[in-house]
Design brief:
The protein is an alpha/beta fold. The chain has 8 helices and 5 strands, in the order H-E-H-E-H-H-E-H-E-H-H-E-H.
C-alpha cells in the first residue's frame, strides 16, 4: 500500500453526536456528490456552478470542489502525471465524502480521465456518487480552447494533456449524460436537476 494511503494503527474513528441524517433534516435535502467529468473545455465547471446556483436559489446547501482550485492548495504538491492524477482524485473523493457527511450537495468538476479512478471514488462514496458526463467531442473542446491549453499541448509545451498526449476514458454508464457540446446551459442544468428530483435528493 502507498504511504499516502496507509492508516496509522493508533487512530480511532470518533462517532459524532450530530448524525448525517440530522444534518440532512436540517438542510431539507439529502447530501450527495455530483461528479462532473469530461475533457478540458467540455463545460464541467460552467455546468457545475450553474447547477449550484440553481440549487442555491432553492435553498440547498452546496459547495463546488473545482479541479483548478484544489491545485492551489490541497493538491498543490501534485503534478499531472498519471500517478499525480490518481492521487488528486483520491484526495478529492475523500474530501467530498466529508462534505456529504455534513449533508451538503457537493459538486466536483474534474477531468478525472481514468475510469479506474472514478470507480474508486464510486466505491468510496457508494450511492452518494452521481457521475455526470459532460459529453463534448474533442474537436468541439479544442475549438473552444478557453485557456489556450490545447494549442500549447499541440505545440508540445504541455506534457500528459488529456485528449492529446494522455487518454480520456469516457464513462460507460453515467447517471447523467449531458450534451454540453450543443445544448444550451439552462437545458443541461434542467437535466441534472430533473435527475436529482427523480432520485429524491431534492424536492
Amino acid at each position: 500500500m502507498d504511504d499516502k494511503t496507509m492508516k496509522s494503527p493508533n487512530v480511532v474513528w470518533h462517532e459524532a453526536e450530530v448524525s448525517r441524517a440530522m444534518r440532512e433534516e436540517l438542510n431539507g435535502h439529502r447530501g450527495a456528490v455530483l461528479w462532473f467529468t469530461g475533457l478540458s473545455g467540455a463545460g464541467k465547471s460552467t455546468l457545475a456552478h450553474a447547477v449550484e446556483r440553481r440549487l442555491y436559489e432553492q435553498g440547498a446547501h452546496t459547495f463546488v470542489i473545482d479541479g483548478d482550485n484544489v491545485r492551489h492548495g490541497l493538491c498543490a504538491d501534485l503534478d499531472f502525471s498519471d500517478a499525480g492524477r490518481v492521487e488528486n482524485i483520491r484526495r478529492v473523493a475523500e474530501v467530498a465524502g466529508l462534505f456529504v457527511q455534513a449533508g451538503v450537495l457537493t459538486l466536483t468538476a474534474f477531468i478525472s480521465p481514468f475510469r479506474s479512478d472514478r470507480a474508486r471514488a464510486r466505491a468510496l462514496l457508494g450511492e452518494d456518487f452521481i457521475e455526470i458526463y459532460c459529453n463534448t467531442p474533442l474537436d468541439v473542446c479544442e475549438s473552444r480552447d478557453v485557456k489556450g491549453l490545447y494549442k500549447r499541448a499541440r505545440a508540445g509545451e504541455i506534457a500528459d494533456f488529456t485528449g492529446i498526449s494522455s487518454p480520456y476514458e469516457p464513462p460507460e454508464a453515467p447517471e447523467v449524460d449531458v450534451d454540453t457540446g450543443t445544448q444550451a446551459l439552462d437545458v443541461c442544468v434542467d437535466q441534472v436537476m430533473a435527475y436529482l428530483r427523480q432520485r429524491g435528493i431534492i424536492a
